[in-house]
Amino acid sequence: MARMKTISSIESELAKAETDLAKAQDRVDKLAAKVLSLQKKKQEYEAKQIMEAYKNSGKTFDELMTFLSV
Prior knowledge:
There is one protein chain. The chain contains 2 helices and no strands. By secondary structure, it is mainly α. The mean pLDDT is 94.
């Protein structure tokens, strides 16, 4: 017959699992913030590139908007 765990060992395992879960959630939160930050940087870079291309194109704003609306 298998040996039963004591309540203190179960509580100990539960506390460790809760601690591990909290650490994992902190890691997820940090990674999510990093992803958002990198996405923002990417959008800023793309916007800068688009603006430079617009400035160098010699096209009017209306021409650009017509082209982008297609």
